[in-house]
């Protein structure tokens, strides 16, 4: 097209063409970006989108629950609408659901609070320059490196009737029985395992704080505590909030620790994901999918509220992008509104960042 | 540019189309079960060639030898072992997902005895023609019963298991008492032993009372040993009876009076075994595998040479064990079913079962092996074990076994920990089981 354009007319069309060309150039880059991103999007659709849709669909069906005269299970699945969901909220199952809901929430609040406090303390220790710092750092990270199931078995050993916990306490607490003791054992084990995670992320945040700020505070005569409150905390907050958000999302689906450490069907430590697992294990995939969907919604809501209330800077780019056009920030907010697709949002926003720069 | 545009458009269209196809096929996959109603149950076992044997992780290390023995004799019908995880739950989950995909990846399945009903009712395993397995009569009848669902054979029992009463023969001899045959004798014997200065603080009795499958086993034994049933011969639950109450009350009273140590509520097989080996228990209900471990003289057991086994005591007479063990079945979706049937016959043959017990001490199902002099010398517990298995009861043969065992554990655990009375626990269990089993 451009080759056929007459040479003499160049000056006039150029004024009209230039914006067009620029737009077509931009359009082209956008397409190229879309093309380059499409493998990621396809993978995301395949591994995130489709399973979610399949689970949602599954939650509307039931199968294999009835037996015919000769003792065989009647094959085939049956569309039951929202029956799987209404069943969860009625009668005995309802009590069990709300108990699990309460346990899940309680574990999340208790564990994350403890882990945050301990994690920040660990980070402060790891950040200090002293002899053997490398060893301290490495040893603090050991629990995080151990698979959850293994650490659950480890703690199960410690909390046995004749285990070392009882030896040290000089009592005979039966940790795996119903009651506060089993709840406590799960909280201890979870905190032990994941406080280092928060510690690690906060440490990364601490290392970005320039020394000059502290020196200035020292010159101004700030005490240790006020330095911590007014300098360290605000500057480490973005990293800390991301760490806490991750921990919250993680703890909301807590499964392995209570399941292995205390055992299934224990009311005191039964969580939503355990309920979903138990249903699936009985080949009741419809109700299991319903439980999983409810947990999914709960996690999404919590993440949304967390991001909204605390303004957690999940994508780590608010500071550089604040003075931006309305449309863009609006779009970005739109992305944050779908925390379920946090990953997709992450890739999309970093892709957008690349385009803008 | 135009080329590029149409290219991207095509790519986008292609992506969308292919995801739709994928989505449709994913959705369609779920519906397949509706029409796939193959009526081939009890059909001929046809086809020869290589097969796979799906079994839990072989902790004994002897399975390779057993399979090698077959493979050397049948070069054209080789068996490959598909080793599944050690956890029974995960084995079952993998076998089920394999069956639901109608995959022929697994030919012979190594099923826990309690899974037979579920696998048979879902038509995941093939019904076996009894006339093609001539040796069934030589197996212990109680073990054969676990392989049947509604009186039809779906598997062949290859290993069995029964509970045994381990006791401290040194202490019993010192106190001048014989091994107990009833619960009441066990209680008085323990009091006599506790009168000895060296056994003042010993715990009397423990089984497996943590809330898991072991509790179902121990609860059933208590109920059966008192003359009650959990699920009757007619397949109907009948657990709200005076006999069952007497059995359960013996356990709850045991906890209340300290006859059973408090810690036993957390015992699975291993913690109980450790307590017995440490010399902290006088009587202990456990499986045969404990015999070798508790007899080790390398210092890991403090009671080597100081213990013996007896059949389980009942409330007023001989006890009733709950049956364990494994049955081999043929997957409905397998190829080469004739080979699979031959392999099962081979593995359940007297020769193979003997080779297996010699190496692994797993209880065989072949009745005459229990009377073999050489084996009895090697495994002195065989005689009481035979008595235990012969008189043993299977756990309920129901399709929803997972729900049934959970309900039993719920009721028993509640009674043992004192949150419900035994009477209420049994009444509640009866209601629950009626709902689960009539469905």
UniProtKB/TrEMBL annotation, chain A:
Q: Pfam families, per this entry?
A: BPD_transp_1
Q: Which residues cross the membrane?
A: 32-56, 106-126, 138-159, 179-206, 227-249, 288-307
| Region feature (Disordered) | 1-25
Tell me where it mainly resides.
membrane
Q: Which residues form the ABC transmembrane type-1 domain?
A: 101-306
Q: Which InterPro entries match?
A: MetI-like, MetI-like_sf
Q: Which GO terms describe its cellular component?
A: plasma membrane
An annotated GO BP: transmembrane transport
**Which keywords accompany this UniProt record?**
Cell membrane, Membrane, Sugar transport, Transmembrane, Transmembrane helix, Transport
Q: Does the keyword Cell membrane apply?
A: yes
Query: What superkingdom does the record give?
Result: Bacteria
| Membrane topology, as annotated | Multi-pass membrane protein
Q: Where in the cell is it found?
A: Cell membrane
The entry sums up its family as follows: Belongs to the binding-protein-dependent transport system permease family.
Name of the protein: Multiple sugar transport system permease protein
Q: Which organism is it from?
A: Kribbella antiqua
From TrEMBL, chain B:
Q: Does the keyword Transport apply?
A: yes
UniProt keyword list: Signal, Sugar transport, Transport
The answer to whether keyword ATP-binding applies is: no
Can you tell which superkingdom this protein's organism belongs to? Bacteria
Which GO biological-process labels does this protein carry? maltodextrin transmembrane transport; maltose transport
Query: What ranges does the record list as Gly residues composition bias?
Result: 31-46
Q: Which family does it belong to?
A: Belongs to the bacterial solute-binding protein 1 family.
> Any idea what this protein is called?
Multiple sugar transport system substrate-binding protein
């Amino acid at each position: 097209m451009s080759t056929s354009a007459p040479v003499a007319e160049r000056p006039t069309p150029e004024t009209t063409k230039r914006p067009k060309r620029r737009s077509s150039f931009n359009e082209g880059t956008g397409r190229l970006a879309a093309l380059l991103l499409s493998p990621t999007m396809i993978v995301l659709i395949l591994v995130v989108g489709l399973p979610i849709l399949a689970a949602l669909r599954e939650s509307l069906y039931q199968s294999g629950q009835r037996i015919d005269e000769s003792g065989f299970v009647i094959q085939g699945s049956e569309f039951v609408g929202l029956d799987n969901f209404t069943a969860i909220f009625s009668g005995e199952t309802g009590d069990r659901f709300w108990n699990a809901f309460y346990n899940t929430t309680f574990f999340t609040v208790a564990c994350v609070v403890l882990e945050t406090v301990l994690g920040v303390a660990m980070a402060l220790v790891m950040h200090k320059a002293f002899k053997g710092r490398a060893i301290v750092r490495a040893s603090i990270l050991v629990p995080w490196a151990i698979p959850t199931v293994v650490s659950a078995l480890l703690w199960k050993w410690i909390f046995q009737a004749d285990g070392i916990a009882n030896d040290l306490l000089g009592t005979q607490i039966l940790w795996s029985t119903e009651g506060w003791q089993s709840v406590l054992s799960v909280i201890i084990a979870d905190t032990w395992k994941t406080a280092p995670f928060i510690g690690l992320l906060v440490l990364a945040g601490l290392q970005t704080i320039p020394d000059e700020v502290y020196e200035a505070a020292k010159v101004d005569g700030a005490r240790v505590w006020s330095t911590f409150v007014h300098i360290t905390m605000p500057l480490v907050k973005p990293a800390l909030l991301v760490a806490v958000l991750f921990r919250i999302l993680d703890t909301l689906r807590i499964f392995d620790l209570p399941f292995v450490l205390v055992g299934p069907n224990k009311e005191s430590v039964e969580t939503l994901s355990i309920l979903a697992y138990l249903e699936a294990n009985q080949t009741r995939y419809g109700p299991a999918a319903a439980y999983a969907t409810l947990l999914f919604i709960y996690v999404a809501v919590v993440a949304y509220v967390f991001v909204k209330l605390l303004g957690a800077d999940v994508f780590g780019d608010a500071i550089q992008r604040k003075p931006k056009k309305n449309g863009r920030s609006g779009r970005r907010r739109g992305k944050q509104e779908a925390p379920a697709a946090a990953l997709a949002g992450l890739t999309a926003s970093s892709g957008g960042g690349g385009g803008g720069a | 540019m135009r080329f590029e545009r149409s290219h991207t458009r095509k790519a986008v269209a292609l992506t969308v189309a292919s995801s739709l196809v994928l989505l449709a096929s994913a959705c369609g996959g779920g519906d397949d079960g509706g029409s796939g109603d193959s009526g081939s149950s009890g059909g001929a076992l046809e086809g020869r060639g290589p097969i796979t044997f799906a079994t839990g992780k072989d902790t004994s290390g002897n399975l390779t030898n057993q399979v090698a023995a077959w493979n050397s004799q049948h070069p054209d019908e080789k068996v490959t072992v598909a080793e599944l995880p050690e956890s029974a739950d995960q084995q079952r989950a993998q076998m089920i997902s394999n069956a639901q995909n109608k995959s022929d990846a697994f030919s012979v399945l190594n099923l826990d005895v309690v899974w037979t009903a579920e696998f048979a009712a879902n038509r995941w395993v093939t019904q076996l023609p009894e006339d093609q397995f001539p040796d069934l009569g030589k197996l212990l009848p109680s073990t054969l019963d676990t392989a049947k669902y509604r009186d039809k054979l779906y598997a062949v029992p290859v290993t069995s298991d029964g509970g045994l009463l381990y006791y401290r023969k040194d202490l019993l001899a010192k106190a001048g008492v014989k091994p107990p045959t009833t619960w009441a004798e066990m209680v008085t014997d323990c009091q006599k032993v506790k009168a000895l200065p060296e056994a003042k603080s010993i715990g009397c009795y423990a089984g497996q009372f943590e809330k898991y499958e072991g509790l179902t086993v121990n609860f059933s034994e208590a109920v059966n040993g008192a003359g009650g049933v959990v699920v009757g011969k007619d397949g109907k639950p009948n657990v709200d009876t005076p006999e069952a109450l007497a059995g359960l009350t013996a356990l709850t009273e045991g906890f209340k009076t300290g006859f059973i140590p408090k810690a036993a509520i957390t015992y699975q097989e291993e913690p109980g075994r450790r307590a017995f080996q440490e010399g902290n228990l006088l009587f202990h209900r456990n499986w045969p595998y404990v015999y070798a471990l508790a007899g080790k003289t390398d210092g890991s057991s403090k009671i080597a040479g100081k213990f013996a086994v007896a059949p389980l005591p009942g409330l007023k007479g001989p006890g009733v064990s709950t049956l364990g063990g494994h049955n081999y079945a043929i997957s409905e979706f397998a190829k080469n079913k004739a080979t699979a049937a031959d392999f099962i016959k081979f593995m359940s043959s007297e020769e193979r079962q003997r080779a297996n017990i010699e190496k692994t001490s797993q209880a065989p199902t072949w009745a005459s092996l229990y009377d073999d002099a050489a084996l009895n010398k090697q495994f002195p517990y065989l005689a009481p074990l035979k008595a235990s298995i012969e008189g043993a009861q299977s756990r309920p043969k129901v399709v929803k076994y997972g729900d049934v065992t959970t309900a039993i554990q719920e009721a028993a655990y509640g009674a043992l920990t004192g949150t419900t009375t035994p009477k209420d626990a049994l009444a509640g269990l009866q209601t629950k089981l009626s709902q689960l089993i009539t469905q």
